Amino acid sequence: MENHRHVIDFYKDFAPEYDLIRDPFFSYWDAFVNNFFIKHLRGNITNKLILDVGCGTGIQTYRVAREGGRPIGFDISLDLLNEAIEKNKGTYKIELCCADATHIPFIDESFDMIISFGSVLSHIPNFRATIKEISRVLKSDGKFLIEVENKICLDLFHEFIDAYLFNGKLYSTKKSTIREHIKGGLKKGGSVPWIFHYQDGKSKRINIWQFTFSEIEEIMEKYSLIIDKSFGIHVFTLIFPSYLLMRIKSGIVKFVVQKLGWLESFITDHFPFNRLGSSLLLVGSKKKDVS
Ligand SMILES: C[S@@+](CC[C@H](N)C(=O)[O-])C[C@H]1O[C@@H](n2cnc3c(N)ncnc32)[C@H](O)[C@@H]1O
Q1: What is the sign of the dihedral through the CA atoms of 23, 269, 194 and 180?
Q2: Alpha helices of the chain — where are they, by DSSP H?
Q3: Residue 114 CB–ligand 1 contact under 6 Å
Q4: How far apart are CA 127 and CA 120, in angstroms?
Q5: d(CA 267, CA 84)
Q6: Is the pLDDT of residue 179 over 70?
Q7: Whose CA, among 77, 155, 243, 247, lies 20 to 30 Å from 69?
Q8: Is residue 132 predicted with pLDDT exceeding 80?
Q9: CB-neighbour burial class of residue 7 (10 A; exposed 0-12, middle 13-18, buried 19+)
């Protein structure tokens, strides 16, 4: 079995802060996901059995329950799962367990829908095994909503400028790291180093696997997962470097991001904007079994 210790350790420190993040970067993402649930899932998931892969603190698992679905969430991090359990005051019936997405502990074709928000796939070196497992436990013709980190986004440009002109003052990305980043990003199936800064000033590095739309489409098709639609998240909002969006509390920046987000909500599923952005939300279904 793969060693996921680095992910577990990363989220151990992050767990108490996870639900408290309210910076413009996260707030925009959270509003995007919330609107997506209202627009696309409301009224369509009543009594459906839905698996939340890498559910973390259960933000989306609870959303599924609120919309009338029957959610089961699992995650590799017990620390995040504990936060999810603590939040449940008995209002919603949700099932949670600790498991690894490369070995999903459910029988074949057991779910009507699989969701995976927060780019869980991008945390997993053996992302192919996870895609294969998602396909295995999804019913034929079942739907999936999977978010992955995207290679083509404005932040790469900001990091490059920061490393070369300002010696990595913002992202604390050294030139060698940015070279690593670009090399990893260009490589098919490559990962990029991502440095997360906690609120107490400490920082931690984690590797993130990024994809272009075509790369992820090709891999998913191999496992009968056919993408019908893709939505770009943080397409225009990243004219501000994500570093600033994760820190600046200024009302003006929040206002501008909100307005850019408003613009984005109209075009996020149209080419080429559905292939740009810091992440892509892929929506589709498992090819019907024709045998
Ligand atoms: C950015 S968080 C997203 C959490 C949640 N889906 C959300 O929308 O808030 C990424 C999650 O992926 C989980 N994860 C990473 N690798 C995993 C693996 N191999 N198996 C299961 N979960 C994993 C992490 O523990 C973390 O909870």
Answers
A1: negative
A2: 5-18, 24-36, 59-66, 78-87, 127-137, 154-165, 175-186, 213-222, 242-245, 251-267
A3: no
A4: 9
A5: 33
A6: yes
A7: 77
A8: yes
A9: buried
Question: Does the N-terminal peptide bond of residue 71 adopt cis geometry, omega within 30 degrees of 0?
Answer: no
Q: Which residue has the tokens 């986004």?
A: 153
**What residues does 282 pair with on adjacent strands?**
146, 230
User: Yes or no: is domain 5-286 CATH 3.30.70.100?
Assistant: no
Q: Which residues of 165-190 are buried (b: 16+ CB within 10 A; e: fewer)?
A: eeebebbebeeebbebbeebbeeeeb
C-alpha 9 – ligand 1 centre gap (Å): 12
Place of tokens 């767990």: 15
> 155: pLDDT confidence band, cut at 50, 70 and 90?
confident
**82 CA from centroid of ligand 1 (Å):** 13
Question: Is this prediction's pTM over 0.85?
Answer: yes
Residue 101, ligand 1, Cβ within 6 A: yes
* Average predicted confidence (pLDDT) for the chain: 88
20-72 pLDDT, tens digit per residue, is 887 888 888 999 999 999 989 999 999 999 999 999 999 999 999 999 999 99
